[in-house]
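User: Can you recover a sequence for this backbone? Please restate the input before giving your answer.

Assistant: Of course. Working from this structure:
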């Protein structure tokens, strides 16, 4: 815990960034993050948050930082500061939601990659997540190591790079001996023990 007024003020400054970070981590797949990375991200998010806040704070005559501590450790917060705090909070929520949406869809990476040729990244954690994010509305055919083939609709898929699990709805299974049958229930869950060898992307689903 911070033990000085300066450290507490720094923590207060970083709070919007941590709020944005929590929104992003909760709504998108970011992979494993260290505490150092989280603090750096929170600082970057806070700078953007306060930049947008300052555009509204100046014409509304609000303080640059709604929450601050005096040298005596007393919280400086008046009724007028409540408006600034609400604006700061709303901006942080908006940035978190917008950035998570952009990560999930790859918007900003697509612009930097396709329009400006500045990167080759997609913004997602790995190729597994790339494929199931970009081809969400298409049937797939899965080939297992034992020769089983399964055609289905990829309803759910793991977002952990260390796990390769997949749930196929409306699944049709072809066994190695040629026997074909439909799964009677909602679908089939393929865990890592199923040993997926390859996946083919089939025609788009007709509405």
């Amino acid at each position: 815990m911070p033990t000085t007024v300066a450290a507490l003020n720094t923590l207060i400054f970083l709070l919007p960034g941590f709020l944005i970070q929590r929104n992003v981590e909760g709504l998108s797949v970011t992979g494993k993050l260290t505490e150092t990375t989280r603090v750096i991200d929170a600082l970057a998010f806070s700078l953007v948050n306060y930049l947008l806040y300052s555009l509204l704070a100046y014409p509304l005559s609000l303080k640059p930082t709604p929450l601050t501590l005096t040298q005596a450790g007393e919280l400086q917060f008046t009724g007028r500061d409540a408006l600034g705090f609400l604006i700061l909070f709303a901006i942080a929520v908006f940035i978190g939601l917008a950035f998570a949406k952009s990560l999930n869809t790859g918007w900003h990476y697509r612009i930097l990659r396709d329009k400006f040729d500045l990167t080759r990244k997609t913004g997602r954690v790995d190729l597994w997540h790339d494929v199931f994010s970009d081809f969400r509305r298409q049937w797939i055919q899965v080939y297992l190591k034992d020769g089983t083939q399964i055609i289905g609709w990829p309803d759910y898929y793991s977002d952990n790079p260390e796990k390769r699990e997949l749930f196929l709805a409306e699944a049709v299974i072809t066994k190695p001996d040629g026997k074909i049958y439909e799964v009677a229930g909602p679908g089939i869950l393929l865990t890592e023990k199923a040993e997926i060898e390859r996946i083919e992307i089939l025609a788009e689903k007709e509405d």
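That completes the design. The first strand starts at residue 68 and ends at 69.
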